[in-house]
Design a protein that fits this description.
Blueprint: H1 2-9, H2 11-23, H3 29-45
Helix pairs in contact: 1-3
Length: 54
């Protein structure tokens, strides 16, 4: 379930990549940093014991 949560919460990353591939939209530095932060946050939240160890 945890890995599915990371995939689910990483949709902004996929939107940025698909916008580049399908529409040709340029990826700004802000969008790239935001997508990486979202992916990192999703991984942190879904990692057991990362926030509050047992």
């Amino acid at each position: 379930v945890a890995s599915a949560g990371v995939v689910y919460m990483s949709y902004p990353l996929f939107v940025v990549l698909l916008a580049r591939l399908l529409v040709g939209q340029r990826i700004s530095a802000r969008a790239a940093v935001g997508a990486v932060l979202v992916l990192g946050g999703a991984a942190l939240v879904n990692t057991p014991g990362a926030i509050a160890p047992d």
